[in-house]
Prior knowledge:
Elements: E1 7-10, E2 17-25, H1 29-36, E3 37-39, E4 54-59, E5 66-75, E6 86-93, H2 95-107, E7 111-112, H3 117-124, H4 130-141, H5 145-155, H6 158-182, H7 193-212, H8 214-221, E8 224-230, H9 236-244, E9 262-268, E10 271-277, H10 287-302, E11 305-311, H11 318-328, E12 333-339, H12 350-356, E13 361-364, H13 373-384, H14 400-421, H15 426-444, H16 450-457
Parallel strand pairs: 1-7, 8-10, 8-11, 11-12, 12-13
Antiparallel strand pairs: 1-2, 2-6, 3-4, 4-5, 5-6, 9-10
Amino acid sequence: MNVLDTVAAISTPYGKGGIAVIRISGCDSISIADRVFKCASGKKLSQMPNARACYGEIISPDDKKSIDDGIAVCFRAPHSFTGEDTVEISCHGGILITQRVFACVLTAGARAAKAGEFTRRAYVSGRIKLNEAESLGALLEARSESQLSLARNGMRGRLSARMDELYGSLRSVLASIYANIDFPDEDLADMSRGEMTDALKQIHEALRALADTYKTGSAINEGIPTVICGRTNAGKSSVYNRILGYDAAIVTDVEGTTRDVLRQTASLGKTTLLLCDTAGIRETDDKVENIGIERSLKEIESAGLILTVLDASKNPDSEDEALVRTVADHAAVKIALVNKIDIAADEPSEKLKGLLSFFDYSVDISALTGEGFELLAKTVDSAFIDGRLDVDNDAIISGARQFSAISKAERILGEAIDSLLSGVSLDACCVDIECVMSALGELDGREIGEQIVSEIFSHFCVGK
């Protein structure tokens, strides 16, 4: 990315709409806009007050012909999203007219922006931190209310503020260590060795508590790999469709209808599920069905949540027992879904009760009527969402990259505390604490490589 370039992009979705917005950002953005926009007042955009909407004509910079009428607004640096001079031109939202206005902006001197370039410029100019940029990306991709809340939390800087506190506390301890090293006889340090140790212990506990929020953040933001498994005709595909809210999987009375793994992302309560509907697990001579069963077993091995569907209208047989034993060996959260309660006896059989003891939770459901799915949502939330956390206001780790940085900082700080307690020289402890600060710097972008930054912003849409 060349930050000296002035870039432009269509910032509204492709298609027909009431308006479309072309965003221009960079040192030449206002002069470029002057070449394509003529204010009805007769003034130039460069003469208009900051953030004042101006009605006028959009003109071709080549032949000065009128293309459309619209609205233009100038946001002068540093009072813009990117921290640079920025102009937003709103035109009528037809596909052709939008493309023509954009082409005029490029002809006037702008370069087409790359994916995420506006947000990256905001990061480079210090308007936002890297984890806040990631939250903005999550906001654009949000598919549930809980994802929206978590993304807004990050954009408001809750995690950044917590990082600033911890970074400042580490800096204070480090300053005392430096003073002890450089002036051992002058008593210039603010903390004794014991006080340094206590301060670092408090920071270590704070890092551990922050790392613990990742289970909740990941469950909301990234999603839990979830497998729906069971015998043929237990109702797996019906459960899959019920959670998704539409008929994504074919449901018939014919055993072995589902032959392959079906995948969708779904929201259940506050949790996001990376949902897989799998082939029914049974003994069969069908070569194609066996391939589907093998894939089902592989999905179970890598799942974070296993939903095992058991048919309450039938007494469990040896195949049910074999499946439950297979599931019980895995570390994933295991929930038994006792399905078809709408046609089953009031009390489950003793054999079924025995199988339920292998699961972390069991929920009675009817995939046909929807009964029990509200309780299922609450059960999944209780397994993955920490109810003590306020998703709107608490600092929460929501991404694997952030969790890696926090975990690294926590581990190194633990080693530094052990060194202090064992009497290791302050010089060695100083190196560890600097490494902790570096790890925290990776989280909010104070210290991070260009390759990682490029990877993060490559997932943004063009125009954001």
